[in-house]
Amino acid sequence: MNKFLFSIFILLNFNSTSMANSNFTGESASDQILKQDIKKVISKTLTTWFGSSCRKIDSIQTQIFKIDQTPEGQIKEVIEYWTVSACNNSKTYYISLRPDTNGEVDFSVRLPPK
Q1: Could you tell me whether strands 59-69 and 75-86 are parallel, antiparallel, or unpaired per DSSP bridges?
Q2: 62-107: per-residue pLDDT in tens?
Q3: Most CB contacts within 10 A, which of 6, 41, 94, 100?
Q4: Rounded to 5 degrees, what are φ and ψ at 21?
């Protein structure tokens, strides 16, 4: 994805933080589809981090922490912190978003230390 399109993508998503899904608030470089994909990965960890009976995320507060660019200005990586609240507890996850050569965005979710 070229620098211009990815930059527009980020700017548009800064302003659409909770329109499509009411449990997301804050700034994110991801669109609603990518947010849901990341949320699915996080949901699989709920019983580990929040207890065996915890199955539902109550809210997710997103925050852009860092945007890493090449010297030419192309986005290499966007790092976000997602604070997930579930079952009366919260944990912060480290989310890495990287544009790939096909114009899509790859992501990784780093789990917090237990």
Answers
A1: antiparallel
A2: 999 999 999 999 999 999 999 999 999 999 999 999 999 898 999 9
A3: 6
A4: -140, 115
Tell me how far apart the 2 most distant CA atoms of the chain are, in Å. 48
Residue type, position 77, single letter: E
For 21-53, give the DSSP string. Answer: -TTEEE--SS-HHHHHHHHHHHHTTHHHHH-TT
Tokens read off for 22: 């009411």
Q: Write down the pTM of the prediction.
A: 0.77
- The residue type at 9: F
Rounded Cα–Cα distance for residues 26 and 106 (Å): 21
Q: Is the dihedral of CA 48, 106, 25, 68 positive or negative?
A: positive
